[in-house]
Structure formats: structure tokens, C-alpha cells
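Here is one chain, start to finish.
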Amino acid sequence: HGIQFFKDSEATFTKSRKYFGDVRKPFALTVMGQRLYIVTSPQDVSAIYRNTTTLTFDEFVRDMMLSFGASDEGVRKMWESPRMGGNVGSLHKVLAHAGEDYYRQQFHPGDRLNDLWTNIQDRLSASLQWNAITGNNLLSAQHDVKTVSLMNLCQDILLSSATSAVFGDRLLQLAPNLLKAFIVFDDESWKLTYKLPPFLAKDMHKARQQIFAALQSYFALPRDGRTGATWVVDILETEMRRIGLEEHDIAALFGMPFWVINGNAYKLCFWYMAYLVNDSELLGAVRAEVDPAVSQGLQGLEGRLEDCPRLVAVYHEVLRCHTASASVRSVAAPTDLGDVTLDVGAKVLLPYRQLHFDGSVFGPSVDEFEADRFLAKTDLSKSPSFRPFGGGTTYCAGRHVARRELLTFAALMVYRYDIEIAPLNSREAQGRFPRCDVKKPSLGVLPPIAGDDMILNLRKRCGDV
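Its structure:
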């Protein structure tokens, strides 16, 4: 099934599910010699989350550490060295597991998230001011109109804001082309996940090496020469050095968090704004909700935006339509899942997009974007078939930041600017909504097909807050 899988993994899942009667029982594929059990039932997904003994995520994490360039010895220390001291809840754990606790402490609601979010929000707000919209995302400017690439705007603002808020300003000062390399890597990252041979993934490996080199230069500096990093970066670096890791391994092990922090928010914002701008009635309805919230200023804005039901409902529908996240488990012992026994050595793949397009849950129009879907039925966002951020022990710790980033970005855009699709010379491009690249294997938010963008005209509407 390897060729079919890499050409269009989602179609392969759907075709196979229907071949077996569309009853959503687990079925097996063989991809590059690896047996994969595909799970598409919300009940089975929940059962897998509960099983932390015979189904493990650890092997996937080890493989990714090595794929990002960590040494065998460095990975061994992450998994075998007991921690000495630390915070309650992380004592007596190997650092690979203690690190998961640290990310939760940083990114779950609380003082540490609030401090980080204030930093990100201030950067988002500053970058979305009229005079700050320049550079790569600005295509042309007149006295009262700026024409921008929506994709470039989302990339520039979201990536720079999150990177500098998490690592401090020094990282991008050391490596001003880091985010360009990241965009290349992110677009090709599925080749790393599925271990394609290097000759089929040259651009990805070159970009990964550029990211690694930037992080290695960063961690080689004394800490007083790179201030401003968030708590989780400081505590993880301290713990890594405590177990004897050098800059090479520290940089490699921060490669995956760097990817996770940056890999989805800009694509979510792109799709969200594309739907708003493409529907003037929807744009007006969202604007009517957010204007009173944003006009009160940035302090407490994230809470006020949660009280904007249409704004939030569109967010959920964008997640449903454009998230292709998946989770992986390794079978460590024979495991019964319903009436199927999972064989030792196999992998279990949970492709959540298969859940998100279940018409029995989300309605007969499941293949279409419906802005009001989660507004008409608010409990849909709590359905076990809605898993944009996974679940169980691998429930994405960054989901709270991602939500705030998107809602704030969208709210500031529609509050500050009148936005319209720019007239284009190409008849083919006029009126064409960006197409989602559903064929590319992905573990996150799907991008548009290469070359599909939305060119916007911006006019100042309200003052900056």
C-alpha cells in the first residue's frame, strides 16, 4: 500500500474503510514493510487513549529525536537518566517524560501561560499595525490601501511572534533566515516522519540542518547573552545539561518542539481569514461580535473573545475541515481492540480526519465548510469524534496557545481593517478559493495547494489598540 499511501494517504484510509464495509473496525495496511493498524472509530480511539501499558508512544518519540539529529547516547540519556530534583509531578521520571510535564506546566492555563501569552499577544498586535505591514507579505502600497499575500502575512507574523516569545529575540537575530528554512521544512516534514530516504528528501534535510545549526548557535551562547526565553526552555536546558548533554544534542532535541510550536498556527489563521474574507455576510457577523471586545484593549482580550460564539464556531469548523493530525502507538504486547487482536511490533495510527468527516456525527453536509455548524450544535466541539488536538497522554499541550493565537489574529484583523479580495489579472485565479492539499501526508493542519493564496486589499478601519 506504500505508493497509494504516499500519493494520497487520506483517500487510502477512506477507500480501505469502505472496502471493509464502512463499519469503522480497525484494519491493517502494510507501508514500506511496516504493519499499520488504522483506527477510525471514536470508541476505539478512546480505548487506545486509555491503554498506556501495551500501546506506547515512546518509540515514536525516540525515533523523532534521532531523526532531528540527536545522538544515540543523547537519546539514551533522555530515557535512562533519572532526574535529580525538579517540580512536583516530574520527580523520579526520565527526562523524556518529565519534559512532557514541563510543557503542560508552561502551556496549560496558569501564570506561566499568561506570561507567555502576554508576550505573544503584544507581538501579534505590534506586527498587525498599519505601519508594520511591510516586507515579504506586502505586494504593493498606496496612500490608503495595502495589498498583501494572506499566506505570507500569516507566516511572517505568527512564526516570528511565537518564536521570539518562546526563545527570546536572540534566536532570530542569530539566524535571520531561520523562518524561511522552517517554512521549507514544514512543507516537507512528512518525509521526516515517514523516514523517506535522503535522496527523496533533499530540501527537507537541508532545511532541518539549517534549523539545527541555528539552535546549536543559540544554545552555545551564555544564558546572559540570550535572555527572554520562556520558562520551559530554561528548565529543559537546565535538565539536559544536568544529565550531561552538550549543545549538539540540546539543539537536536529542541528541534521537534520548535516544529510543534510553529507548525500549525499560521495555516489555521490562513484558512480562517480566507473563509471570512470570502463571505461578506460571515465577515460582518464576526466583526459585530469582536468590535466591542477589541475596542476595550488588549488586556483580558482572550477572555472576551471566548464570549464571541460565531468567532469560536468558525474556529472549530476550520479545525474540522483542515486538520489532518494523527497519533501513533507501538504495539508492545498482544492487544485486543474490540474483536481485533493487534500484533506485537505493529504500529497503530489514529487519523483524526477520518473522524471529522463522519456524516453520522457532523451531518450530511460533512464534506462542506459550514460556518454555523458548531453554532447550531454547540456540543459538537466536545464530541469524541472531534479530535483536532488528539487526546490521552498525547493531547496537544499547545492547544490553548493555538486557540488564542487564531482568535486574536482574526479579531485584530477584522477590527483594524476593511478587507477585500484584490482583483487579479488572471481570470483563472479570480474567484477561486484556495484549494486544500488533502493528498499530502500530514500530522497537523493541511496547507493549501502550492501556489494557491489569497491576495487581499487592506484599508485602515479602526485605530490600533
